[in-house]
Design a protein that fits this description.
297 residues, alpha+beta, 2 domains, three-stranded antiparallel β-sheet, 5 helices, 20% helix
Length: 297
């Protein structure tokens, strides 16, 4: 080969190598990858419906269907403590299908399971954040341990009194109702020679909430009455003392208040001084025997 022509070829080759190096550095120092086959997308993971909070839930909140929602959750990440509807969703294929699955999970009815029925009436024991799974540790249902301590209003106490069908309005008092607490006791009437028997009846507490009847904290949906042996009431610490004294002094009777009369004052009733002995006396004649009954407001 002609030496001149060989020199031209060598110069062209060196120039081409130099240009390739310059272009490589200009592109970030990485050589262009050779074309290769693109891997097929990995199939999505199966999902499970998990019950989560729709919004932040504070301690003491009573849950309804408006507070919770079903949300798609990776099945492999589902904790045993999560509340699920027991149905696994098919693995999503692509972003569009995954979005559709999550949208379906937002419905109030998924697979025939109503979220309201999953935790209806439960009380929040620990704060729950938006989107956080509902777990039994953070809520308490009626009948569970610690239920009353959660449903009690701040500063209130729970105290039980014995009742019968007769002293509890025939069993028509239900948990959540409001009642007045009356006490009856025997006494001697000093105003009539000191020998007459006087039966005193007075209202000790008014407009107090019934927390439970026996161990029932919520009446069944169709229940109209509950016959119980004890009624648990929500009272203040000072009202609890007054109720304890009343229980020790005589029988306790509960008077059911009307639903429209629930907004009045609640707690101990202040005694009103009687103007005369006869103003608050009712004489009852039974079988020829007269008994004076003292009635106090």
């Amino acid at each position: 080969m002609n030496p001149v022509r060989l020199l031209i070829v060598l110069v062209a080759a060196i120039s081409a190598i130099g240009l390739a190096v310059v272009m490589q550095r200009a592109l970030g120092g990485k050589p262009a990858a050779a074309p290769s086959a693109i891997a097929a997308p990995v199939a999505g993971k199966p999902m499970t419906q998990v019950l989560v909070a729709k919004h932040d839930l504070a301690i003491g909140a009573r849950l309804t269907g408006e507070d919770v929602i079903w949300q798609a959750w990776p099945t492999e990440a589902v904790n045993a403590a999560f509340i699920t509807n027991g149905a696994a969703l098919p693995a999503p294929e692509g972003a569009a299908k995954a979005k559709a699955v999550v949208a379906d999970a937002a419905n109030e009815m998924i697979g025939g399971v109503d979220p309201a029925k999953a935790v209806e009436g439960a009380i929040v024991r620990d704060p729950i954040l938006t989107g956080e799974p509902i777990t039994p540790r953070k809520i308490v249902r009626g009948g569970d341990g610690g239920y009353l301590s959660v449903v009690l209003s701040p500063g209130k106490r729970a105290m039980s009194v014995p009742v019968t069908s007769e002293t509890a309005v025939g069993g028509f008092i239900l948990p959540g109702d409001r009642v007045d607490v009356l006490q009856t006791r025997d006494a001697q009437d000093s105003g009539q020679g000191g020998g007459s028997k006087v039966l005193i009846a007075e209202t000790i507490l008014q407009n107090v909430r019934v927390l439970a009847l026996d161990q029932t904290t919520a009446a069944e949906k169709e229940a109209k009455s509950i016959v119980a042996a004890t009624a648990t009431l929500e009272v203040s610490p000072t009202d609890a003392e007054a109720l304890a004294r009343a229980k020790a002094a005589g029988p306790i009777t509960l008077a059911l208040r009307a639903y429209t009369d629930l907004g009045g004052p609640s707690g101990a009733v202040g005694r009103v001084e009687r103007r005369t002995q006869d103003d608050a006396m009712v004489r009852v004649n039974r079988g020829g025997q007269t008994t004076s009954v003292s009635v106090r407001p």
